[in-house]
Amino acid sequence: MGEQGSIRTGRAVRTGAAKSGKPGSDTSGAAAPKGGTAASKGRAKAGAVPGAARTAAGWKSESRLAMVRRARRINRELAEVYPYAHPELDFRNPFELLVATVLSAQTTDLRVNQTTPALFAAYPTPEDMAAAVPEEMEELIRPTGFFRAKTKSLIGLSTALRDNFGGEVPGRLDDLVTLPGVGRKTANVVLGNAFGVPGITVDTHFGRLVRRWRWTEQEDPEKVEAEIATIFPKSEWTMLSHRVVFHGRRICHARKPACGACPIAPLCPAYGEGETDPEKAQKLLKYEMGGQPGQRLSPPADYPGKPAPPLGAG
User: Which of 152, 203, 280, 286 is catalytic?
Assistant: First the structure.
C-alpha cells in the first residue's frame, strides 16, 4: 500500500474504469478501494454532475437545510475515502501531544515529528521540561522555527502543569487554555485525541475548506468553530476535523486543488478552481494519495502510506 497505483480516489477510479471497460478497476488494473467505491456511488446519486455545472446563483440560493444535508454527505463520503484519518502528530501521551501541537504553529507536522524524539528524550515529563535550560531547548526545537517563543511557551506550560495540575495535562478546555501558548485550537486537538472529548479543530486547512464548501463565511476561527458545530452532531466533531484536514492536505490544496481527482466534486461549489483533468489532477495528489511518505514517523497500524523519514534521513 502507499503506491500511487494502489490508492485511488473515487473520481480517478471511475475514470480508469471507463477507459478499461471494467467496473471498479483503474488503468493500472488495481482494484478500486473502499473509499473510491463509495465516492463513485455518491457521484451516481448526485447525477455525476460537477459542482461547476451549478450556477453561482444556484449555490447562493441554497437553503440552510440543503447546505446541512450536503455538508453531512460530504462528511460521510470523506469517511469512506479516509477511514484511516488520524492526528498527524506523533505522540504517546497527552503531554507529548500538547507539546507537539504547540510546536506545530507555523511549521509542518512532519518537521515537528522529526524534532520531538530528541526533545522528549531530553524532557520526558512536565517536571523535566519546566527545569530545562532555555538555550538548550532552543537548539533542540530550532528546526520548527520561532524556537525562542516556543521554548518560552513550553517551559511556561510545563511549569503550570507542575505547579497547578500535579504534573498532569488537564482534560478540560477551560483549564487547558490557561496554559501559556495554548489556545482553543490546541486545546481541542488535545481533548479530542488524548481524552476522547469531541472538539472541532479549526486550522488553516479546515477554515479554507469549509469556506470553499460554503458551510460558513466566517474568517475568525472561533466563529468558524461555532458555526460548524451547529451543522454536525457532537460525536462527529473530532473525526470531521481529521477528515477535512486530510482532504485539504492531499487533494483540495490551497493553490492547485486536484478537482479532477476529488471524490466530492459534485458537492463542491468551488469545483473548477483547480485542475479538472483527471490524469493531470492525479499528479497533484500528495502524501499517500500520491505514493509519497506521510507526515508521521510512527503512523497508526491502519495507515496505508509510507512512514516519514527521521530528521536528516532524506
Answer: 203
